[in-house]
What does this fold into?
Amino acid sequence: MSERVNFHFEIDGENFTSAGEASVRIKKHLRDMGFSPDTIRRVSVAMYEGEINMVIHANGGSADVDVYVDRIEITLADKGPGISNIELAMQEGYSTAPDNIRSLGFGAGMGLPNMKRYTDNMKIESEVGKGTTIYMTVNV
Amino acid sequence: MTVKELASALDCKIACMPDESREITGGYAGDLLSWVMGRASSGDAWVTIMSNINIVAVASLADTACIILSEGVIPDDGVVEKATEVGVNILMSQLDTYALCASIFKLI
It folds into this structure.
């Protein structure tokens, strides 16, 4: 494999039913590239949670997955409302998702905690009114 | 036990079974999708009453062996097509979640 392989996705914020498309595609790419089922699961679950968050809260955004020999880096960027209290948002069970989203089985306040649980490193940069960028790394 | 064998043993209806020989290695029950994604294990039979399209992505990414809709729930429009496309098995049972899980526990 060359030094780095990049996959870029635009996440459609209008269509909740197609949320997860990018994660499912990444899962296929990583499987084709020969990564272990555990690595694939960690990357795709973390990315799915990010996708869902961007659809629920930020009207979409972009996802970049950079695959290296020893690690996989995921960058999720949106121009949504931003996160005013990141520490609070990271707590399991805390959610600002609306009721219609909860009725679909989301909004349990597990999105960001799952992203942290499934990755080796996670950094959130957010500015209220400007947007949020999340960097995650899964070591291979 | 394979998904096909479990479906038969539980007398489940089959919404779609694109991967009938998938081995079931455990079970999980839950309706909060992020919770399921964080806790269900690869190879689980996942019991839920959620019927919307997002269950397909959750099952695919968490790599569960199948979804079993309990309590007589049927999948929403478009779910079966999407599940077939991405290889996710969906079964349907009239049993309530508790009885269904107890039955699965005895079988696997």
Observations:
- Chain B touches chain A through 21 residues (CB under 8 Å).
